[in-house]
Amino acid sequence: MGFIGSDDFYMMFAPVVVYWAYSGMYEVLSSRVEKYRLHSRKEEETKNLASKKDVVKGVLLQQAIQAAIAFTVLQQFLVAMFVFDAWQYFIHRYMHSNRQLYRQFHSWHHRVVAPYAFAAQYNHPVDGVVTETLAGAVAYFISGMSPRTAAFFFSVATVKGIDDHCGLMLPWNPFHAVFRNNTAYHDIHHQLAGSKCNFSQPFFVMWDRILGTYAPYTLERREGGGFEARLVRKDKVGHDS
């Protein structure tokens, strides 16, 4: 799908359309309900130092600047997501393929076999720094985000990481509607049978798909309530030993 009609397009231009539609409604309405006006038409013409033509030009200029800034921020955000995901995938996968690194560092995180929300960042300090902190630093510098944009990005990444470990498949969860990498997807990775697959985190699943570590799953209702994510077995999932 091209830029026109994409979510990015709507994010940038929907506020512009709403602005002119809503203000236009008042412009039409004000000519028909004179008794409710705070200022007469004559006062608008005589007291205002800027003509309506100048106001239209000024507003359009401001909206063009805002759209350009929004586009730049969006681009930085997407670059940060890509870099963050790439770093975490390759470091995470290497932690699993290197037995010494796994036993000494990453196995801490997998002590939690049935994940819950605040266990999302339960890591060995070395694992936490190498896998998560450095991922954030590299994403920050490569994307060129401002500190304010970075604060928002890291907040979203933190929330997404918590969501992936929360252990709840809520039907109204917006992350599940946007990302294939969700709570059930990462739960498979925490299962013994799925520990060599579904390394991608926290946003996309593309690295798993590209490099052959993607593992499909089914979500089945558990007797007594709740759900169970079950790995769909293949002859071989992933390439790590």
Task: Describe the overall structure.
This protein has 241 residues and is mostly helical. It contains 9 helices and 2 strands, in the order H-H-H-H-H-H-H-H-H-E-E. The protein has 2 domains: 64 residues, no CATH class; 157 residues, no CATH class. Helix content is 58%, strand content 4%. The chain has a two-stranded antiparallel ribbon. A hairpin with a 5-residue loop joins strand 1 and strand 2. The longest helix is centred in the first third of the chain and has 46 residues. It starts with 6 loop residues before the first helix and ends in a 10-residue tail after the last strand. 23% of the residues are buried. The C terminus is likely disordered.
